[in-house]
Amino acid sequence: MINLIRLLTIVAILSCTTVPVGDNNPRITNNFNxxxxxxxxxxxxxxxxxxxxxxxxxxxxxxLRLREGAIxxxxxxxxxxxxxxxxxxxxxxSSGISKKALVFHEAVHxxxxxxxxFHGKRYKEAKEEETPDTDDPKELEKKGYFPDKCALSIMHxxxxxxxCLKAHWxxxxxxxxxxxAN
Length: 182
Ligand SMILES: [Zn+2]
Known about the structure:
Elements: H1 2-16, E1 21-26, H2 37-50, E2 57-62, H3 64-68, E3 72-78, E4 81-87, H4 88-92, H5 96-112, E5 117-118, E6 121-122, H6 137-142, H7 162-181
Parallel strand pairs: 1-3, 2-4
Antiparallel strand pairs: 3-4, 5-6
Helix pairs in contact: 2-5, 5-7
The chain binds zinc ion.
């Protein structure tokens, strides 16, 4: 019974989390001159975990969801210049772990140069990626999901619900560190 409730909760949460986390999109110039302090807190944690940092990175908040239909984007200007933009409304309504997961997700795009993948395999993009319609743990794993249907990686194109982030946080960190090291 608990499993059923859990499953229904995942379906409900995922179906309203239709907003993708953006990929490396080209943009001509940066919107921000520095890194917003609220984002910097998580970026320095990312730096401690992965050893990765960029002096050419700027980051801030905007009405991204309205403009790009995404809650986070890593913009790439070439010559190593990058910018993370986070949707300000998503940020205001989110928990600490969700904010951290989103900043880490964008940092993996911007500083590790990785796309939406798990253990080196790619997810489909947000519009097409769906939680597999199976309860077989092996099938789920092959497609990038834990047996409880949480994604195997924070690089899933959609930000995972809080209970997934809490239940699998250490596994997410490990996967993230490995993917950035390779
Ligand atoms: Zn992404």
